[in-house]
Amino acid sequence: MLAIQIKDVKTFMSKLLSGNTFDSFLLEEAQIHTFNTFTIDGHQNREFYTKEELEDAELFSYEYSEWKNMKSICFQLIKGKKVPTFMKIILHQKPENSYTLLEESDALEFAKPLKAFVVTIRFDSNGLLLTTGTSFTTFVMDKTPDLLWDNAFRKFLVTEEIDFEEV
User: Fold this and answer.
1) Cβ neighbours, 10 Å, residue 67
2) Predicted structure pTM score
3) Under 8 Å between Cβ of 121 and 103
C-alpha cells in the first residue's frame, strides 16, 4: 500500500475530471459531499438495459462502469464556486492492464486470485490523498502484487506529470 499526497490539487482534479488521464480505470464507487451527499455505485445495472443492449460485449466488458463514462457526472456534481467538503473516488485498473502488469513482471501466478489493483482518491480539508491497494478473491501472503502495483502507479503519476510526495 502506498499513500501519496498530491501537491497541485487543481491540476490533478482537472486531469481526473476533464482530461483522459484516468480513462483506463473503472469506477467502483464515488462519494461527493457538496450541498448534498451523493454516492455513486459503479456496478453496472444490467436490469436497466434491453436484451439487445446486453449483447453488446463492448458495453458490458466489465463489472464496473468505465471512468471515462462517469467522470462528467462527477464533474457536474462538484462544478461551481465552492469545492466539495469531501470526496472519495475508488478506481480499479482494468483487468487486461492488471494482467499485462503481472505478465511483464513474470508474476502470472497472481492473476487468478487478483480481483483488482485499486487506487482510492480522497479529498477533504487536509488535501488530496491517493492510496493504492490490491483486492484478492482469496488470502495471499506474498506482497509481490502490492509492490508491483505501487511501483507501476508511481510511474503512472510521473509519466502523467502529476506532482506528488509519498507520506
Assistant:
1) 25
2) 0.94
3) no
